[in-house]
Write a structure and sequence with these properties.
The chain is mostly beta strands. The protein is built from no helices and eleven strands. The strands form two sheets. Strands 2, 4, 5, 6, 9, 10 and 11 form a seven-stranded mixed sheet that branches. A hairpin with a 4-residue loop joins β7 and β8. The protein is globular, with a radius of gyration of 13 Å.
Length: 122
Protein backbone atom coordinates (compact mmCIF):
# COMPACT_ATOMS: atom_id res chain seq x y z
CA UNK A 1 0.00 0.00 0.00
CA UNK A 2 1.29 3.44 -0.92
CA UNK A 3 1.61 6.05 1.83
CA UNK A 4 2.38 9.75 1.52
CA UNK A 5 3.87 12.20 4.01
CA UNK A 6 3.95 15.96 3.52
CA UNK A 7 6.47 18.35 5.06
CA UNK A 8 7.78 21.87 4.62
CA UNK A 9 4.82 23.91 5.80
CA UNK A 10 5.13 26.83 8.16
CA UNK A 11 4.47 30.50 8.78
CA UNK A 12 5.70 32.99 6.20
CA UNK A 13 5.07 36.62 5.40
CA UNK A 14 3.26 37.64 2.25
CA UNK A 15 5.63 37.63 -0.68
CA UNK A 16 7.74 34.87 0.82
CA UNK A 17 8.41 31.34 -0.34
CA UNK A 18 8.06 27.79 0.92
CA UNK A 19 8.84 24.40 -0.58
CA UNK A 20 6.60 21.51 0.32
CA UNK A 21 7.68 17.91 -0.03
CA UNK A 22 5.55 14.81 -0.47
CA UNK A 23 7.50 11.64 0.28
CA UNK A 24 5.97 8.39 -0.86
CA UNK A 25 6.51 4.83 0.19
CA UNK A 26 5.53 2.09 -2.18
CA UNK A 27 7.18 0.66 -5.22
CA UNK A 28 4.72 2.00 -7.79
CA UNK A 29 5.05 5.68 -6.94
CA UNK A 30 7.37 6.48 -9.78
CA UNK A 31 4.80 5.28 -12.29
CA UNK A 32 1.93 7.37 -11.08
CA UNK A 33 0.65 10.89 -11.08
CA UNK A 34 0.58 13.02 -7.92
CA UNK A 35 -1.52 16.00 -6.97
CA UNK A 36 -1.19 18.74 -4.37
CA UNK A 37 -4.43 19.94 -2.81
CA UNK A 38 -5.26 22.51 -0.16
CA UNK A 39 -8.13 23.12 2.19
CA UNK A 40 -8.75 26.39 3.95
CA UNK A 41 -11.09 26.63 6.96
CA UNK A 42 -14.70 26.49 5.87
CA UNK A 43 -13.80 25.71 2.26
CA UNK A 44 -13.71 22.62 0.11
CA UNK A 45 -10.47 20.88 -0.69
CA UNK A 46 -9.17 22.09 -4.05
CA UNK A 47 -6.52 20.95 -6.47
CA UNK A 48 -3.49 23.24 -6.53
CA UNK A 49 -1.19 21.40 -8.93
CA UNK A 50 -0.59 17.95 -10.33
CA UNK A 51 2.16 16.19 -12.20
CA UNK A 52 2.00 13.11 -14.39
CA UNK A 53 4.44 10.23 -14.34
CA UNK A 54 6.11 11.74 -17.41
CA UNK A 55 6.31 15.23 -15.94
CA UNK A 56 3.29 16.96 -17.49
CA UNK A 57 1.81 19.48 -15.11
CA UNK A 58 -1.38 21.36 -14.44
CA UNK A 59 -2.09 24.25 -12.06
CA UNK A 60 -5.05 26.03 -10.56
CA UNK A 61 -5.48 29.47 -12.09
CA UNK A 62 -4.93 31.07 -8.69
CA UNK A 63 -1.36 29.75 -8.43
CA UNK A 64 -0.15 29.84 -12.04
CA UNK A 65 3.14 31.66 -12.33
CA UNK A 66 3.78 31.42 -8.58
CA UNK A 67 3.82 27.70 -7.78
CA UNK A 68 5.87 24.97 -9.43
CA UNK A 69 5.35 21.25 -9.01
CA UNK A 70 8.19 18.84 -9.69
CA UNK A 71 9.16 15.28 -8.94
CA UNK A 72 12.26 13.30 -8.15
CA UNK A 73 11.28 9.72 -8.88
CA UNK A 74 14.61 8.40 -7.61
CA UNK A 75 13.73 9.84 -4.19
CA UNK A 76 10.02 9.02 -4.44
CA UNK A 77 9.29 12.65 -3.70
CA UNK A 78 7.15 15.36 -5.26
CA UNK A 79 7.78 19.01 -4.46
CA UNK A 80 5.64 22.13 -4.53
CA UNK A 81 7.69 25.31 -4.73
CA UNK A 82 5.52 28.21 -3.66
CA UNK A 83 6.70 31.75 -4.38
CA UNK A 84 5.05 35.15 -3.96
CA UNK A 85 2.78 33.72 -1.31
CA UNK A 86 -0.44 35.53 -0.45
CA UNK A 87 -2.61 35.40 2.67
CA UNK A 88 -5.25 33.59 0.60
CA UNK A 89 -2.78 30.72 0.13
CA UNK A 90 -3.21 29.91 3.83
CA UNK A 91 -4.49 26.34 4.12
CA UNK A 92 -3.60 22.79 4.99
CA UNK A 93 -1.82 21.30 1.98
CA UNK A 94 -2.22 17.63 1.15
CA UNK A 95 -0.68 15.39 -1.44
CA UNK A 96 -2.57 12.65 -3.20
CA UNK A 97 -0.82 9.94 -5.11
CA UNK A 98 -1.43 7.16 -7.48
CA UNK A 99 -4.07 9.02 -9.41
CA UNK A 100 -4.71 9.42 -13.10
CA UNK A 101 -3.50 12.40 -15.11
CA UNK A 102 -5.42 12.81 -18.34
CA UNK A 103 -6.03 15.84 -20.54
CA UNK A 104 -4.55 18.20 -17.93
CA UNK A 105 -6.91 16.86 -15.29
CA UNK A 106 -5.91 14.93 -12.19
CA UNK A 107 -8.23 12.23 -10.86
CA UNK A 108 -7.35 11.50 -7.21
CA UNK A 109 -7.26 8.23 -5.35
CA UNK A 110 -8.03 7.43 -1.73
CA UNK A 111 -4.33 7.80 -0.81
CA UNK A 112 -3.82 11.05 1.10
CA UNK A 113 -1.08 12.34 3.35
CA UNK A 114 -1.82 13.87 6.75
CA UNK A 115 -1.34 17.42 5.49
CA UNK A 116 1.00 20.28 6.32
CA UNK A 117 -0.14 23.72 7.46
CA UNK A 118 0.85 26.78 5.45
CA UNK A 119 0.09 30.15 7.00
CA UNK A 120 0.81 33.39 5.15
CA UNK A 121 0.65 36.57 7.19
CA UNK A 122 -0.13 39.94 5.66
Amino acid sequence: QVQFEESGGGLVQAGGSLRLSCAASGSTFGLNAVGWYRQAPGKQRELVAAISARGSTTYADSVKGRFTISRDSAKNTVYLQMNSLKPEDTAVYYCNGGGTFFSSTYYPTAYWGQGTQVTVSS
